[in-house]
Design brief:
heterodimer, A: about 375 residues, alpha+beta, Rossmann fold, OB fold (Dihydrolipoamide Acetyltransferase, E2P), B: about 300 residues, mainly alpha, MetI-like fold, two-stranded antiparallel sheet, globular, transport (chain B)
Chain lengths: ~375, ~300
Amino acid sequence: MALDASAPWEDPEAKPVIHFQNVTKRFGDFTAIDDLTIDIYEKEFFALLGPSGCGKTTLMRMLAGFETPTEGTILLQGENIAPVPPNKRAVNMMFQSYALFPHLSIWENIAFGLKRDGMSKHDINERVDEMLRLTRLEQFARRKPHQISGGQRQRVALARSLAKHPKLLLLDEPLGALDKKLRQETQFELMDIQEKTDTTFVIVTHDQEEAMTVASRVAVMDHGKIIQVATPDAIYETPNSTYVADFIGDVNLIEGKAAGQDGDKLKITWAEGQPDIIGTPTTEFSNGQTVHFAIRPEKVSITAEKPEKANCLQGKILDIAYLGNISTYHVELAGGKVIKAQTANNRRLSRRSFTWEDDVWLSFTDTAGVLLER
Amino acid sequence: MRRFFLIAVPYMWLLALFMVPFIIVFKISLSDTALAIPPYTPTLDFAAGWQGFKSFLSELDWENYVFLTEDDLYWKAYISSFKIALTSTILTLLVGYPIAYGMARAPHEWRATLLMLVILPFWTSFLIRVYSWMGILSQEGYLNQFLMSFGLISEPLIILNTNIAVYIGIVYTYLPFMILPIYSALEKMDESLLEAAEDLGCSRFTAFWLVTIPLSKQGIIAGSFLVFIPALGEFVIPSLLGGSKTLMIGKVLWEEFFSNRDWPVASAVAVILLLILVIPIILFQRNEQKQREAEG
């Protein structure tokens, strides 16, 4: 497969829109961003994901120009943006609170940035109408922000920040204030608008599902550092650390010791009285080295009889979490370790095969889990 | 029934403490002066019955109001009061806005203290505070001593007993009334609005002009009325700090009442002043209502 525009980060020739070079930001004694280097490419939908206080918002505020890096440089299309004030940057931001001007109508809110550029009246009218169409807000143009719903306000904020054709659009928790159903709809709308406008989007979020849905690449952050940058599926299927594996989705983590390589397989001893786990490592593990075995619950099968699989563990059902489409079983093994297994509920509940206190077998293939050093 | 009662209480209060005194003053303004106690005629004699009431009414006339238009002292005093009140309102706004802005932008833990400091002067008597300004502004006062000791001026400035002293007095006295509503408007403002304005291409100054000022408009209007309305009828400040040339309607009213003992003319002056004040008071009420609607 040739390298195409949808994965510019794999192309060594591609020029990034944004380039962070060893950027550090300190507030007094607190280091918000710690020696961070990252590239963001054109037309990407880039997500910064992490718990609150991990530095993702600081990173975004540095892009917008509200904070300056303590050390290092940030390049926007090859140009150092540190000395450029926020009002002179080709970067616009959609605020978490939306920050709509309450004294101005929706139309005036969207036109606000255009007027500052000294555009002609005719051009402003045209552009505002275009943005209103894009965000399906035509009939609300004359209303004030307090006269429309939360979802509509979110779209006004988006329209306002897109109106000036920014090279880069920053979205600070853009869907945080919406309820779940509306949030899911809006995620697809955001992707649609991003595609239509061909703008580079950088989204800050603490919601991993949101990041996975909208982003072309996700950067998982913790304590001012980027732990992993990859596409959503790579982040999910091949996390590089237990932190990422644990932060994204649900995971079973088993700590053990490497106990001998056999071809491309590795045996892991992890508890007395339990059979070794056989996995497929991607890095070298020396004998006796600590191995963290991470496996997603949906990759663990649950059966009444012992199946023919590389790894089989026996246990007793402790808890069942019924979520409608899926059920999560908490199975306690002999040593007390609890493993989560997930099954899709393609049968009706009344014919469910397992219930509390049932003895069951958990099984997974030798490629289902990931072996991590830390 | 209970609802009627609840509404009746404030209305009874207004009737007893506002309408009744106003009717008395209005009645006096239609009477004539007399060397008597009280110093006007006619007085209502209930013993004379219906006939007495009719003759009482026939003796009332508008001649005091006609007199106010004939002597130019009065309308000059009204206009001069209006000018002084307007100028001092603008001055108070210019002084008060930056203070309110600074308070609203101060760290959270400081705000209560700053608010306290603004209100603190109310804890001493208004009269004493105005008197102390006489000590500051007079020719041998602290201000002149201070400036002369630094050699900034060679002759003492003449401030006391001029309109400047009146402006200083009014601005000083009514400053909290300007600061508090503006502060409460600015404090509610979301700071990300200013960041958004900057992000969209505003400089700090245009962001202030296009966002901060419009969003504190209700506070500015409320504060201005709260200063303008009492300043228009102000009596103590012009009579203590102002000079013989300071012409304000409050002072005219006082002299008419106490020096001249012409209660009917004084009452007529008061009624006209009230009618003039009704306009800004109605405007003020409308502004408050608009603000409540915007917030609701």
